[in-house]
Design brief:
The chain is 58% helix and 0% strand. The protein is mostly helical. Helix 1 packs across helix 2 (31-40).
Length: 81
């Protein structure tokens, strides 16, 4: 994937999605992380687009929060020698 070919907004969304995955201790970046990042983007095109389609972004954010919280994260374990 050529990250440098992404638009600035797309690069920011991927970086924000990585931060969101880290916040939940998720070992991989998934579509839910990216969608949450796109919903939170200032001056982003996704919230107005969803509004025009009749999608409640408030409800979607809540559902994303529940889904991300329910997903297991990674746990650091101490190894005994």
């Amino acid at each position: 994937m050529r990250f440098d070919k992404f638009t600035i907004k797309a690069q920011e969304a991927v970086q924000d999605a990585e931060s969101i995955a880290g916040k939940y201790n998720h070992p991989s970046l998934d579509t839910e992380h990216l969608l949450q990042a796109l919903l939170e983007q200032e001056e982003g095109v996704i919230p107005p687009l969803l509004d025009r389609l009749g999608v409640s972004t408030t409800q979607l954010r809540g559902e994303l929060e529940r889904a991300l919280t329910a997903r297991p994260g990674y746990m650091a374990r101490m190894l005994s020698f």
